[in-house]
Amino acid sequence: MNNFAYMSGTGNDFIVSTYTGPTSEIQIISLVADSDYDVDGVIFVESIDGKTVRMHYYNSDGSTAELCVNGVRCTAKYAIDNEMVSTNKITVKAPVGDLEATVEDSLVKVNAPIPSYLSDQINIDKYLGVKSEVGNPHFLVNVEDVEIFELAQFAEQVNESSYFPNGANVEVYEIINENFIKTRVYERGVGETDACGSGALCLFNYLYMEKKVNTPMTILFPGGELDMEYINSEIFLSGSVTYL
Asked: 2-111: which CATH architecture?
């Protein structure tokens, strides 16, 4: 791989390299197995022009995903640090469309797509939750104590249900107050991860639209914080990107 790096977007850890051509599922699984870190995915960054790159993203099991916002943030940071672009305001081409990212040192902000959600709640194993989508599907569940919740077991039941025939990312959350949410996430094709950008978008949009949180506000993941904000009907997500 060219210009190989390990990067972390608020606890989402990735192998990142320059794109050189198509990669098979077996190659991705081999890269993950040989990794020095427990990574959530593999990203290849393809140069398009002086302000645009394309993100080729794979989950750790070799499958592809419609959206990985923390992966987009790492892609933008990697593109600048490897002089693939000539500006700190970058367009990252992802499967869901073009996302605009701004890089200021280790802080990367993304103008993100707005999720949709269903107002009617779904009952799975006696837990009521909300189905939300932002290119990929999510199930959002309010629980009493995020830290002790049996997330992996519950996520297995969610992904076996008829509500999510293609699986879903599962977020359990507590509202600390109108400015802070605490959450954990189990990502489809990965397992429990330390953060999830698309999950943060779904949580923030749903809770803000239901008038349960303010803007701006912060979502607390095990891996760190993501700051969320609505500006003129657009959602912005920002957080740190570091090298491992």
From this structure: Roll (3.10)
